[in-house]
Amino acid sequence: MGALLKDWVVIYRQPHMSPFAYEFFCCLAEDYDHAEEQAINAYPNADVLWLVQTNDSTTAEEDWFTCGESENVRS
Length: 75
Fold this sequence. Notes:
Strand content: 25-35%
Number of helices: 2
Number of strands: 3
Low-confidence stretches: none
Distance between the termini: 32 Å
Shape: globular
Helix content: 25-40%
Order of helices and strands: EEHEH
């Protein structure tokens, strides 16, 4: 049996966007790495800014703003 898929929201920025702009990518993924992989496959030139296991972009945004830059996102 396959791994259980969970809701994830990835916050990312495209190269052409303002440094203050960002977008959300919602997906079902096995884990952090799988969610990041899906976002990069969908938007190969984007910078991944934050990932949160949730199905709500508002929750993801609040988590990003509250936690700020941390080891949650790998360069």
